[in-house]
Amino acid sequence: MKRLLFLFQYIGNPRTVGAILPSSRFLGDKMMEGIDFKKAKYIVEYGPGTGVFTKKLLEKRNPETIILLVEQNKEFYSLLKEKFKDERNLFIVYGSAENIIEHLREYGIPYIDYVISGLPFASLPKGVSNKILLETSKILKKDGEFITFQYTLFKKTFFEQFFTKIDVKREFRNVPPAYVFSCSMPQNDMGELYGV
Questions:
Q1: Residue predicted with more confidence, 142 or 170
Q2: Cβ-Cβ contacts under 8 Å for 144 (sequence gap 6 or more)
Q3: What keywords are assigned to this protein (predicted)?
Q4: H helix or E strand, kind and range, residue 177
Protein backbone atom coordinates (compact mmCIF):
# COMPACT_ATOMS: atom_id res chain seq x y z
CA MET A 1 0.00 0.00 0.00
CA LYS A 2 2.77 2.46 1.01
CA ARG A 3 4.73 1.55 -2.14
CA LEU A 4 1.71 2.25 -4.33
CA LEU A 5 1.12 5.59 -2.60
CA PHE A 6 4.77 6.46 -3.13
CA LEU A 7 4.60 5.55 -6.82
CA PHE A 8 1.44 7.61 -7.38
CA GLN A 9 2.97 10.61 -5.58
CA TYR A 10 6.13 10.28 -7.68
CA ILE A 11 4.11 10.22 -10.92
CA GLY A 12 2.16 13.32 -9.83
CA ASN A 13 5.07 15.20 -8.21
CA PRO A 14 8.39 13.93 -9.63
CA ARG A 15 10.32 17.11 -8.73
CA THR A 16 9.43 16.98 -5.04
CA VAL A 17 9.07 13.23 -4.39
CA GLY A 18 12.20 12.25 -6.33
CA ALA A 19 12.00 8.44 -6.08
CA ILE A 20 9.69 5.68 -7.27
CA LEU A 21 10.04 3.57 -4.10
CA PRO A 22 10.52 4.38 -0.40
CA SER A 23 14.10 4.13 0.90
CA SER A 24 15.33 0.70 2.03
CA ARG A 25 15.97 -0.15 5.69
CA PHE A 26 19.66 -0.46 4.79
CA LEU A 27 19.74 3.13 3.60
CA GLY A 28 17.85 4.08 6.77
CA ASP A 29 20.55 2.40 8.90
CA LYS A 30 23.30 4.19 6.96
CA MET A 31 21.55 7.55 7.52
CA MET A 32 21.44 6.91 11.29
CA GLU A 33 25.07 5.74 11.69
CA GLY A 34 26.58 9.09 12.64
CA ILE A 35 23.87 10.26 15.05
CA ASP A 36 24.72 10.45 18.76
CA PHE A 37 21.26 9.59 20.06
CA LYS A 38 22.31 9.95 23.71
CA LYS A 39 23.22 13.61 23.26
CA ALA A 40 20.76 14.76 20.59
CA LYS A 41 17.98 16.94 22.00
CA TYR A 42 16.44 18.18 18.74
CA ILE A 43 16.22 16.35 15.40
CA VAL A 44 14.47 17.57 12.25
CA GLU A 45 13.54 15.47 9.25
CA TYR A 46 12.86 17.10 5.88
CA GLY A 47 10.60 15.22 3.48
CA PRO A 48 9.90 12.11 5.60
CA GLY A 49 7.57 10.64 2.94
CA THR A 50 6.09 7.41 4.30
CA GLY A 51 8.24 7.52 7.45
CA VAL A 52 11.03 4.98 6.79
CA PHE A 53 13.69 7.15 8.46
CA THR A 54 11.21 8.50 11.02
CA LYS A 55 10.53 5.00 12.32
CA LYS A 56 14.25 4.40 12.86
CA LEU A 57 14.68 7.79 14.56
CA LEU A 58 11.85 6.97 16.96
CA GLU A 59 13.28 3.52 17.74
CA LYS A 60 16.75 4.88 18.51
CA ARG A 61 16.10 8.27 20.13
CA ASN A 62 16.10 9.18 23.80
CA PRO A 63 12.37 9.50 24.70
CA GLU A 64 12.96 13.14 25.71
CA THR A 65 14.44 14.04 22.30
CA ILE A 66 12.11 16.22 20.24
CA ILE A 67 11.68 15.29 16.58
CA LEU A 68 10.10 17.68 14.07
CA LEU A 69 8.97 16.37 10.67
CA VAL A 70 8.48 18.79 7.78
CA GLU A 71 6.45 17.36 4.90
CA GLN A 72 4.91 19.37 2.04
CA ASN A 73 3.14 16.50 0.27
CA LYS A 74 -0.44 16.40 1.59
CA GLU A 75 -0.89 12.64 1.15
CA PHE A 76 2.35 11.82 2.97
CA TYR A 77 1.55 14.38 5.70
CA SER A 78 -1.83 12.71 6.36
CA LEU A 79 -0.21 9.27 6.40
CA LEU A 80 2.44 10.41 8.91
CA LYS A 81 -0.15 12.07 11.18
CA GLU A 82 -2.09 8.81 11.38
CA LYS A 83 0.92 6.50 11.59
CA PHE A 84 2.66 8.37 14.43
CA LYS A 85 -0.36 9.85 16.24
CA ASP A 86 0.54 8.22 19.58
CA GLU A 87 4.20 9.30 19.63
CA ARG A 88 5.36 11.69 22.35
CA ASN A 89 7.72 14.59 21.52
CA LEU A 90 7.06 14.21 17.78
CA PHE A 91 5.66 17.17 15.82
CA ILE A 92 4.58 17.01 12.19
CA VAL A 93 4.39 20.18 10.09
CA TYR A 94 2.65 20.49 6.75
CA GLY A 95 4.95 22.92 5.00
CA SER A 96 8.30 23.51 3.32
CA ALA A 97 11.81 23.09 4.68
CA GLU A 98 12.46 26.56 3.21
CA ASN A 99 10.58 27.92 6.24
CA ILE A 100 12.37 25.80 8.85
CA ILE A 101 13.24 28.77 11.09
CA GLU A 102 9.56 29.72 11.33
CA HIS A 103 8.61 26.11 12.09
CA LEU A 104 11.19 25.90 14.88
CA ARG A 105 10.02 29.17 16.43
CA GLU A 106 6.45 27.88 16.38
CA TYR A 107 7.49 24.96 18.60
CA GLY A 108 10.02 26.88 20.71
CA ILE A 109 12.98 24.86 19.43
CA PRO A 110 16.23 26.87 19.90
CA TYR A 111 18.59 24.91 17.62
CA ILE A 112 18.97 21.53 15.89
CA ASP A 113 21.48 18.75 16.55
CA TYR A 114 20.74 16.79 13.37
CA VAL A 115 18.77 17.39 10.20
CA ILE A 116 17.88 14.23 8.28
CA SER A 117 16.77 14.89 4.72
CA GLY A 118 15.01 12.84 2.08
CA LEU A 119 14.62 15.83 -0.26
CA PRO A 120 15.60 15.32 -3.93
CA PHE A 121 18.05 18.21 -4.33
CA ALA A 122 18.88 17.05 -7.86
CA SER A 123 15.35 17.92 -9.02
CA LEU A 124 14.42 20.82 -6.71
CA PRO A 125 14.64 24.34 -8.20
CA LYS A 126 18.04 25.86 -7.39
CA GLY A 127 16.54 28.80 -5.48
CA VAL A 128 14.59 26.42 -3.23
CA SER A 129 17.67 24.26 -2.59
CA ASN A 130 19.74 27.36 -1.80
CA LYS A 131 17.23 28.64 0.74
CA ILE A 132 16.82 25.26 2.44
CA LEU A 133 20.56 24.74 2.85
CA LEU A 134 21.21 28.31 3.95
CA GLU A 135 18.49 28.12 6.61
CA THR A 136 19.75 24.69 7.66
CA SER A 137 23.28 26.03 8.18
CA LYS A 138 21.78 28.68 10.50
CA ILE A 139 19.82 26.29 12.74
CA LEU A 140 22.49 23.61 13.29
CA LYS A 141 24.33 23.84 16.59
CA LYS A 142 28.13 23.62 16.68
CA ASP A 143 29.15 20.16 15.41
CA GLY A 144 25.55 19.51 14.34
CA GLU A 145 25.06 17.56 11.12
CA PHE A 146 22.93 17.74 8.01
CA ILE A 147 22.52 14.17 6.73
CA THR A 148 21.02 13.58 3.30
CA PHE A 149 21.12 11.02 0.51
CA GLN A 150 21.31 11.45 -3.24
CA TYR A 151 21.55 8.99 -6.10
CA THR A 152 24.65 10.62 -7.63
CA LEU A 153 27.63 12.69 -6.43
CA PHE A 154 26.48 15.55 -8.64
CA LYS A 155 25.35 17.78 -5.74
CA LYS A 156 28.49 17.40 -3.60
CA THR A 157 30.06 20.68 -4.80
CA PHE A 158 26.72 22.40 -4.21
CA PHE A 159 26.62 21.15 -0.59
CA GLU A 160 30.22 22.37 -0.15
CA GLN A 161 28.98 25.95 -0.58
CA PHE A 162 27.15 25.60 2.76
CA PHE A 163 29.19 23.07 4.76
CA THR A 164 32.94 22.85 5.32
CA LYS A 165 33.12 19.11 6.07
CA ILE A 166 31.33 16.43 4.05
CA ASP A 167 31.68 12.67 4.55
CA VAL A 168 30.24 10.44 1.82
CA LYS A 169 29.23 6.78 2.14
CA ARG A 170 27.64 4.47 -0.45
CA GLU A 171 24.68 2.18 0.14
CA PHE A 172 24.18 -0.38 -2.62
CA ARG A 173 21.20 -2.11 -0.95
CA ASN A 174 18.72 0.49 -2.11
CA VAL A 175 16.76 0.99 -5.34
CA PRO A 176 18.57 2.80 -6.86
CA PRO A 177 21.86 2.64 -4.88
CA ALA A 178 22.45 5.87 -2.95
CA TYR A 179 25.16 8.10 -1.51
CA VAL A 180 24.80 9.35 2.07
CA PHE A 181 26.25 12.82 2.72
CA SER A 182 27.04 13.84 6.33
CA CYS A 183 27.60 17.60 6.25
CA SER A 184 28.86 19.81 9.08
CA MET A 185 30.76 22.97 9.97
CA PRO A 186 32.95 21.72 12.83
CA GLN A 187 34.89 24.95 13.38
CA ASN A 188 31.82 27.18 13.21
CA ASP A 189 29.94 28.18 16.35
CA MET A 190 26.65 29.29 14.83
CA GLY A 191 25.01 30.50 18.04
CA GLU A 192 21.36 29.79 18.72
CA LEU A 193 18.44 30.34 16.43
CA TYR A 194 17.39 33.59 18.02
CA GLY A 195 20.74 35.29 17.50
CA VAL A 196 22.16 34.65 20.97
A1: 170
A2: 111, 112, 113, 114, 115, 184, 190
A3: Methyltransferase, RNA-binding, S-adenosyl-L-methionine, Transferase
A4: none
